[in-house]
Amino acid sequence: MPAKTILPLALMTALMLAAAPVLAQTPAPVTATVDRTSLTTDDILTLTVSVTADSANPPQPVLPGLSGFTVVGSNTSSQISIINGVISSQLIYNYQLQPGHSGQLTIDPVSLTLNGQTYTTAPITVQVSPGTGAPTPAQPSRPITANGSGLNGQKTYVEAEVSNATPYLGEPIVYTFRYYQALDAFDLMLNQPQFEPPAFTGFWSETQPGQKQGQLQADGVLYNVTELSTVLVPTRAGEITIEPAKLVLPGSFFNRGGELQSQPVSVTVKPLPAGAPANFGGAVGQFQLEAGTDITQTKVNEPITWHVTLSGRGNINTAADPVWPDVPNWRSFESQATTTAQPQNGQMAGSKTYERLLVPQAAGKYTLPALEYSYFDPALGQYQTTRTEPIQVGVEPGQSDVAAGGYTASAPGDAGRPTPATLTSDFRYLKPVPGSLRSGLAPLTRSPLYWLAWGIPLAALIGNLFWQRRQNYWATNAHLARSSLARKKADRALAWARHNSGDHYEAVHQILTAYLADKLNQPVAGLTRRALAEALAGRGLEPELIERVTDCLAETELGRFSPAAADGDRTLHLLNDVEQLLNDLEKAF
What we know:
Immunoglobulin-like, alpha+beta, five-stranded antiparallel beta sheet, 29 strands, about 600 residues, single chain
């Protein structure tokens, strides 16, 4: 093959390989993560192990020895779903670990044996620094300290409180909402309540993920207690009233539903005292600042990383960044801070980590100056300043500086062009440009085969571009994808129900509610008849068709909870009726 055709064919092969989409990989059924990778011996590390399986009772993961840690608490949460008769579950195990000493500690892989195959997670390495000697209790493992003073034997009850009713301006507090549900209130458990938090006017708020579960015995009644937490940072001083939170109890076949409201909560925010340091940026709490570099010896134009960590308890999310000093003969590049924070004992605790890139411009011995950070300590009622230690860094000459010493003359015929010695270290003149460039061979671009070879990868790239755009469109419009596939999912579920004996009322109820949820892009299992009818009417459906939907759902609820045995002929007719109803709904949507 001629040499001039090899290059375009090689380029074509490389581009076609680059344009091929990456095959999706099946996620592992077990994962292990930690809430932080840098902490002190006073802190608690949360290890989260997640198990996902197509089974209602997946096996429990096997923890390693956890050398260097002590398990001080644990809790478990689970979620089971049934879609078109397929069961899937996810179990989340949270372990609170107390480091026994400082240094680099490693959590060995967690293993899980599922369907005869063993899966393991990657090891996790964390850096532990010495603390003050006052260990922090593991907040997630504490029991729910429910108040419940106004229960009086009620079936349901809600309350709200704050961890500190007299904070300073900028001092974080935790707003806690609790929902009490008597265990014998079976009819209230059929549908999931909907929580509506207050507006939190006058506060910066951040809702904490997840919820705590517990039980409480009061007035001879055993209650399930659900607790939700929100971190609040006051943004103005004075008296602030937090409006009541609401909990909407959806109706069901046995219950009309209703709405519960908590009491309003009053917070008196104290202003910060006068006399704040010049570099005070609004941090309120107890903080410490640490700094270090990845290396202390480098060369000109070879960067180093300046690691700075602000850690402690307080408004870590809204605290200002440290004031960075100018370092002569160094170029610096900003970086985005990495923040980790979580509530602990009614306060926010965590850290902000900065990685600032520094590039030396000249050889010599330098000192990165100490950093100072001022904050207001609400426990002491006064301003405090934490400081880092200066860092010594040595910079040697770079290779370009050494090479530049030997060039002093210009090439002949280049009058007026600067010599290499007179140019900056970033650009070096190496060789004069010839008067003309000639080749004895015909240009490769004159060959028709060259352009033909380029056409194939170009077409592949264009096709891949349209494929990627289509994939991105469906990824950003997931509700449209669910809506378009809703009928196919319903048909598969109907076919499964026809060929399997079981509770056809339950099957029809799941099929119809799943179809409507995909079409309306909202859950409908907890909606009342009136709310569902309004949602369908908002999509332009006729009243007669809406009435058929609500009647069908009412019939399935009656059949699911009726003590009488199901009539086989009626359930078969019910499958046919819902199929016709789906046909009419598909035309209406």
